[in-house]
Write a structure and sequence with these properties.
Its main location: membrane. This protein has 313 residues and is mostly helical. The protein is built from 15 helices and no strands.
Length: 313
């Protein structure tokens, strides 16, 4: 006897439509376009988000309270009296507007220090990535070694050096050390290796373009995401710099915001204590706003460089 075999019914996508066959077929491999949900990973990220946002929420909420309201109300909820704008006004006008002077000093240190560090790191990193010269490996070792040395370990030798030069208690004591960014140099170096094709540079040279013109018209545009990243790193490092100004500066008129706010906070201790915690909290809120705005405004440059080197030509 010969059995008649019925043709296998298949669906449009070519898979078997037989229920029994479907049950026996192995499960399709997981698609990377539809990532599998992980409860543990979601819970872990939620904890990180809370860890990051709760201090910020506490700062915003307590900036709306009076000095007495800080101690008579719950820390993560508003008080009956909303005095945010009054606190801002008192912060800006306290002691003849010294906060605005500290804010201007911080901007000065950031523009000259962080801006100069970004420029020097970009020039040096690009040169090390695209030019071959003797001693290149030695420079690479020195840069890696400089990254491994913490800044606090160099603070005292830097103070002794600047003291001999007569530059302590001047803005140059903060600006000059801020010009050196080994990590920024290394980051530009690594980024320039893949983001700036050597073929483009050779084509520009064959057309008669000099090295400076090639760098500023071609390479800078290709290095934009890396430059912005280094800029933000150096801006944040200079903006939050505390230990170096603390040992270098003794004149309050040259203090940055970090040292100045700590001086306000120290008024709560001692015999003639005059606590102004409401102004310290409000000043801290005003201090982080420029950094937040800078991150949000420059985020698009990061996004434009996320796919760099992801597709092989």
């Amino acid at each position: 006897m010969s059995a008649t075999l019925a043709p296998e019914v298949r669906s449009v996508d070519g898979r078997s439509a037989d229920p029994a066959s479907a049950r026996r077929s192995p499960r399709r491999p997981h698609s990377p376009l539809r990532p599998r949900k992980s409860v543990a990973f979601t819970l872990l990220m939620s904890i990180f988000i809370l860890y990051s946002l709760v201090p910020l929420a506490w700062l915003v909420i307590n900036a709306t309270k009076t000095q007495s309201g800080l101690f008579s109300s719950f820390g993560l909820w508003f008080d009956d009296e909303f005095v945010l704008f009054q606190n801002i006004w008192e912060t800006l006008t306290y002691r003849d507007g010294i906060f605005l002077r500290w804010f201007g000093n911080t901007l000065l240190y950031v523009v000259l220090g962080a801006g100069g560090a970004t420029l020097l790191a970009t020039l040096a990193g690009y040169g090390l990535a695209k030019f071959r010269f003797a001693g290149r490996r030695a420079v690479f070792a020195v840069v890696l070694g400089a990254i491994a040395v913490p800044g606090t370990a160099l603070a005292v030798p830097t103070f002794l050096l600047f003291s001999q030069l007569g530059l302590t208690n001047t803005p140059w004591a903060i600006i000059i050390p801020s010009l050196i960014s080994p990590f920024g140099l290394y980051l530009i170096w690594v980024y320039a290796v893949d983001s700036v094709p050597t073929e483009i540079l050779e084509a520009a040279r064959m057309d008669g373009a000099g090295e400076f013109r090639t760098f500023f018209t071609i390479s800078v545009r290709l290095l934009a995401p890396g430059i912005v990243t280094v800029l933000l790193f150096t801006v944040v490092a200079t903006w939050n710099n505390y230990f170096l100004p603390l040992i270098m500066l003794s004149d309050p008129t040259w203090y940055p915001l970090t040292v100045g706010l700590n001086q306000w906070n120290a008024q709560a201790t001692g015999v003639a204590a005059q606590p102004i915690y409401n102004l310290v909290i409000t000043g801290s809120l005003l201090t982080i706003l420029p950094i937040v705005i800078a991150f949000l405004g420059l985020q698009r440059f990061w996004q434009s460089g996320l796919s760099a080197g992801s597709v092989k030509q």
